[in-house]
Amino acid sequence: xxxxxxxxxxxxxxxxxxxxxxxxxxxxxxxxxxxxxxxxxxxxxxxxxxxxxxxxxxxxxxxxxxxxxxxxxxxxxxxxxxxxxxxxxxxxxxxxxxxxxxxxxxxxxxxxxxxxxxxxxxxxxxxxxxxxxxxxxxxxxxxxxxxxxxxxxxxxxxxxxxxxxxxxxxxxxxxxxxxxxxxxxxxxxxxxxxxxxxxxxxxxxxxxxxxxxxxxxxxxxxxxxxxxxxxxxxxxxxxxxxxxxxxxxxxxxxxxxxxxxxxxxxxxxxxxxxxxxxxxxxxxxxxxxxxxxxxxxxxxxxxxxxxxxxxxxxxxxxxxxxxxxxxxxxxxxxxxxxxxxxxxxxxxxxxxxxxxxxxxxxxxxxxxxxxxxxxxxxxxxxxxxxxxxxxxxxxxxxxxxxxxxxxxxxxxxxxxxxxxxxxxxxxxxx
Length: 430
Ligand code: CMC
Hints:
Layout: E1 6-11, E2 16-23, E3 26-27, E4 62-65, E5 70-73, E6 76-77, H1 78-84, H2 87-96, H3 102-113, H4 120-127, H5 135-145, H6 159-184, H7 198-207, H8 213-216, H9 219-231, H10 239-248, H11 254-265, H12 273-284, H13 290-297, H14 317-333, H15 338-349, H16 353-357, H17 364-375, H18 382-403
Antiparallel strand pairs: 1-2, 2-3, 4-5, 5-6
Helix pairs in contact: 1-9, 2-18, 4-5, 4-6, 5-6, 5-11, 6-7, 6-18, 9-14, 9-18, 10-11, 10-18, 11-18, 12-17, 14-17
Carboxymethyl coenzyme *A is lined by residues 235, 238, 269-271, 273, 297, 300, 303-310, 358, 360, 363-365.
């Protein structure tokens, strides 16, 4: 074994020493099991709440250099995909590893277009939800409601079957999202129209017959939504991708796994952050109020929503791209004045030692909500849009997990700190 690619560990409890192999900059956690204080000792475990330094998988889908602010999918920089690709082409790339040729792309788009209509039972399920209710909760439930319609989806080892379910999910989520939006607003459902294009059809199902109908048909709005979908398409082993893989690792079907991933996304520290960003900017109210707000935000008890990231310790490249789109979209849909508050907040925070010393920069959610609001989406829909976009990433992560022979059911260990054995005392004697 080459000494450059090993780690020598000495267990000071016993004096035992072992040389552990380092592969891909990683030491296998199982290697630590050999360190024991006695024969009946379980062996050393590693403790890592929140998986801050644990690689749970090998992956070839997405690469992030958080220190340098770089994001690539299958090697392609996010900046190039956002500007030049389409959402469905990028989805193919994530799932297949290469960009499609013209024929492959046309067939792919056509086969997804065929599957955009939802089973009647799923549309009925959505129509039972409370008007005005949270569309993210509706979305999670409706994705799960697809599962009983497609019992064959449980055959996860069958590659062809998997590919069909993947196409069906990609085709269904915009329809589900739009139906949830319309149910929330007590609007009649608009059914998908074949042949109109993925994004145009999505916007039509959302806004047809509403006051934003004309705005949603603007070419710059369609392009902005396409870019936003691409920017959110995947982000390697984040909370929701990890949920997708963990649920899928038990053999659950992809509808149920994806419902769980979407539930993980809904939280305010993950995909729910852009809603909170908007609420925060509205509460600040004007650029002049920013310095006061920031002073209060530095007490360690509150968070500036849309700032900071587990992986990026530099500018989030997605936030930079969204920032450059803002004015173009405003030209088509009208200005969202909250942009001035956001810009001042970014400027002041990046000039403040509290934020710079902790490497807290604006993340993807900081500017996306301002754009979504300008287009006409209520804040409650922001996580749903994130979920529609992230669906391709979740499916690619799930597929990679199913095809990976090294993957096992996700089942972490714990450090038990509870009481030792004690005897049950009947209630009357307590
Ligand atoms: N505002 C103020 N302080 C912050 C913030 C923030 N947004 N984020 C982190 N900190 C501070 C935190 O208090 C801690 O300070 P100290 O060392 O003095 O205790 C330090 O920075 C490190 O924070 P952490 O909680 O250990 O970092 P983490 O990697 O566990 O958290 C995060 C990452 C994204 C959950 C966090 O930065 C956060 O809560 N941000 C706001 C919510 C947000 O915008 N989430 C969207 C993330 S991007 C989209 C997505 O991937 O879903």
